[in-house]
Specification:
It is a single chain. The protein is α+β, with helices and mostly antiparallel strands and about 525 residues long. It has three domains: about 70-305, Trefoil (Acidic Fibroblast Growth Factor, subunit A); about 355-410; about 420-525, no CATH class. The chain has helices at about 15, 40-60, 65-75, 105-110, 235, 310-315, 320, 325-345, 355-385, 420-450, 485-490, 510-515; strands spanning about 95-100, 125-130, 145-150, 160-165, 180-185, 195, 215, 225-230, 250-255, 260-270, 275-280, 300, 470-475, 520-525. The strands form four sheets. Strands 1, 2, 3, 4, 5, 10, 11 and 12 form an eight-stranded antiparallel β-sheet that branches. It is extended.
């Protein structure tokens, strides 16, 4: 079918159909192709070009999120060497780790059997960058998070320097009670000191536990001073003589200005880039017998060291770039436990029991306690009620207590009530309570119907109690106030307000049925 225009004034159907690509006319080119831009094609092209250029610029400047995260990880996990001292005491200028020994398994199972507090042992005071601050500053700053982490290998985030409060170059031994500052490992040009505010403010409280916050400060102020105190009461008495602070020994790190202890918040985990850790605050905690709780126990460690690796591994790649943190933590924990066991064995102490042994020992103690309670109960029953005394041939049940004779708190009744007697007493008490409630409802109804405060019917000893035993609202001008003439002397006299037609003939109208003028309300007990 061809496209021919016979007349300029006439309209041909073939001419109209040839303008469409599906009409079968090959003379007209197609009106649409894949290269045609539709809509805001120019704006989309410019936006994609800007995104591509911005991405290339950030990649060259190492400003991408993944690059900044990697920079932060490489910076905070960079290995450091701790200061090894031969005398075993803490000095100013030492590079140390602040380790939380945590509770032993027996204590953890007894105090909190449904919590895995055994996992909180051997944790180190660490610092990390907040999840929302990696893109802004991938290094330690005053807004960094202070937590306790299970990582024990010494690196930038969990190693600190003990500094003298006045002169940083002093390297003398630190005694109990001496002030010192805890400085973080350098990641910038200015130093950072461990800081805690004595009072809770909006920006000085932890996120979950709402306790005084522990953070970094870039200035030297009184809030950055700390003290070390022993746990032993005898050493506390000898503190004025000057006792040096030992390494790898449980102690208390106290804030010098507020007097509170550095504490672990074991019930409030904190989510960081390195995993789930626990918050750190300034709070003094005690156990059930008012001793310093294990949350306030810390220890200074300078001999943890970096775990040794095979030579071929070190030769193939750099250790800081390809180290597995989980494997390092496991090796360090096993090495620490082995060293601790050797030290305890050398000192002659008993080896720490496993959780299974602790549970078995706890069950045996509970069984012994139950047997002892049963024995005491039988002895008390025997001595408090001699008529039911029995002879126990077994030596497990003595006739008297081993220390002092028991004291009977109350005598055993000779006759016990039966079920029928108890049921009768209960029904009688319930009936009395119901009768009293019906009386109160009746008085309320009479007040609602008559509108007279204190209105009651004639006294009947069989159906109602004495009038003098209850409180009524009386009017000063009424006939039964104050001489207690109620309802014209025990007669059923109705008293509708403003009318006298329904009063009985025996009523004295001058005393009872006269309407009072503006009565004054009083509350009295007759």
């Amino acid at each position: 079918m061809g496209c021919v225009n016979k007349d300029s004034t006439s309209i041909d159907l073939s001419t109209i159909l040839c303008s469409f690509p599906h009409c079968g006319c090959n003379n007209q080119p197609s009106s649409y192709s894949a290269e045609t831009y539709v809509g805001n094609w120019y704006e989309d092209t410019v936006r994609n070009t800007i995104k591509r250029e911005d991405f290339l610029r950030k990649r060259e400047c190492e400003d991408l999120s993944i690059q900044r995260s990697q920079i932060m990880v490489d910076t905070l996990l960079k290995p450091v060497s701790l200061t090894a001292k031969s005398n075993g005491f803490l000095h100013y200028g030492d590079s140390i780790q602040i380790v939380a020994p945590g509770p032993d398994c027996c204590t953890a199972v007894k105090e909190s059997p449904f919590k895995t507090l055994c996992k909180l042992s051997h944790m180190s005071l660490s610092s990390s960058v907040g999840p929302n601050e990696i893109d802004l500053k991938p290094w330690l700053d005053t807004d960094s998070i202070i937590t306790v982490s299970p990582g024990l290998f010494p690196c930038i985030r969990n190693s600190y320097v003990i500094e003298h409060p006045e002169c940083p170059t002093i390297t003398s031994v630190i005694n109990y009670g001496d002030c010192f500052r805890i400085r973080a490992m350098p990641t910038q040009q200015f130093p950072l000191y461990l800081h805690a505010a004595p009072a809770i403010k909006f920006h000085e409280a932890t996120l979950h536990s709402a306790k005084p916050l522990v953070r970094f400060s870039d200035t030297k102020n009184p809030n950055t001073l700390w003290n070390a105190y022993p746990l032993d009461a005898k050493q506390k008495l000898r503190m004025p003589l000057g006792i040096p602070v030992p390494l790898k020994m449980r102690l208390v790190i106290k804030h010098a200005l507020s007097g509170k202890n550095l504490s672990i918040e074991s019930n409030f985990p904190a989510l960081t880039y390195f995993g789930c850790e626990y918050e750190v605050s300034v709070e003094t905690k005690h156990d059930t017998v008012r001793r310093i709780s294990w949350e306030n126990h810390w220890a200074f460690d300078t001999e943890r060291g970096w775990p040794k690796e095979p030579r071929d591994f070190v030769a193939k790649a750099k250790f800081a770039a390809s180290v597995n943190a989980d494997a390092v933590n496991k090796d360090a924990g096993e090495e620490a436990r082995r060293e601790e066991e050797e030290k305890l064995a050398a000192q002659g102490y008993q080896e720490e029991m496993t959780p299974e042994e602790c549970e078995q020992q706890q069950k045996e103690e509970m069984i012994k306690k139950a047997e002892w309670d049963a024995m005491i109960r039988k002895v008390i029953e025997e001595q408090c009620n001699p008529r039911q005394k029995k002879d126990y041939p077994d030596s497990k049940y003595p006739t008297i207590l081993p220390r002092e004779p028991p004291v009977c708190l109350q005598d055993i009744p000779e006759k016990q009530l039966t079920y029928a007697e108890r049921l009768a007493e209960y029904e009688q008490a319930e009936a009395e309570q119901l009768q009293q409630q019906l009386l109160v409802d009746y008085r309320n109804k009479m007040y609602k119907d008559t509108g007279i405060p204190g209105y009651v019917m004639a006294h009947d000893p069989k159906t109602s109690p004495q009038p003098n035993s209850h409180m009524y609202t009386l009017s000063e001008n009424q006939a039964f106030y104050p001489n207690q003439k109620w309802n014209c002397g025990d007669t059923k006299c109705c008293y509708p307000r403003g009318t006298l037609s329904k009063c009985m003939s025996t009523c004295e109208q001058n005393e009872c049925c006269a309407e009072p003028a503006e009565p004054k309300q009083h509350f009295r007990t007759y």
